[in-house]
Write a structure and sequence with these properties.
By secondary structure, the protein is mostly beta strands. The protein has strands spanning 4-9, 12-18, 28-33, 39-44, 54-61, 64-65, 69-70, 81-86, 92-96, 106-110, 123-124, 135-140, 146-151, 158-163. The strands form 4 sheets. Strands 3, 4, 5, 6 and 7 form a 5-stranded antiparallel beta sheet that branches. The protein has a 4-stranded antiparallel beta sheet with strand order 8-9-10-11, with no helix packed on it. The chain has a 3-stranded antiparallel beta sheet with strand order 12-13-14, with no helix packed on it. The two termini are 31 Å apart.
Length: 176
């Protein structure tokens, strides 16, 4: 599995290519861009992973993507992590089989501390987001009132929409 990039110009996609840091024999999946488009989060089993699939990040600098940085053992475990989603407010959501949960993949949240390598302690989102099945692909609207996730709680993977009752719409920071 690889992550590719393409440009949309004159009503068509052109210049398709894999990202420059990809290594043959490793898998790359679940890409998620930061709100400013300058940081890419993804899952990979590339050399340096702590388990099977880990969450990594790469920054867009001087016209290319930097060599990826593993998000470390606060996030990654000896088991699989994947499906990162970075909310415009800075919270990182991801699914993990290795952190304590309800079973299968559970959805977790953390936030960077600002030094580029450390994260707040992760938090399991709990029920009803997590079940004894696998819960993945969590996304949250910009105003933090609704979103989607995928789960096999119905015995096949389905997409579920959720609405957070009693939650007021949250504005994004002015620079986002």
């Amino acid at each position: 599995m690889q992550i590719w990039v393409s440009s949309f110009r004159d009503d068509r996609w052109i210049d398709q290519r894999s990202l420059e840091f990809m290594i043959l024999g490793s898998n790359y999946s679940h890409p998620a861009l930061s709100a400013d488009g300058r940081t890419l989060y993804f899952a990979s089993d590339m050399k340096g992973s702590h388990g099977g699939m880990d969450i990594w990040m790469s920054n867009y600098e001087s016209g290319s993507w930097t060599y990826p940085i593993n998000l470390g053992t606060d996030i990654n475990t000896p088991k699989d992590e994947g499906w990162p989603f970075i909310h415009p407010d800075g919270d990182l959501y991801f699914s993990s089989k290795g952190h304590a949960g309800y079973g299968g993949y559970d959805i977790f949240r953390t936030r960077p501390l600002g030094n580029g390598k450390d994260w707040l302690p992760i938090e399991n989102l709990g029920k009803p987001f997590n079940t004894s099945f696998s819960d993945i692909s969590f996304v949250l609207s910009d105003d933090q009132t609704q979103g989607f996730l995928a789960s096999n709680r119905s015995r096949s993977y389905d997409i579920f929409k959720y609405t957070l009752n009693g939650v007021e719409s949250q504005p994004l920071p002015p620079d986002v």
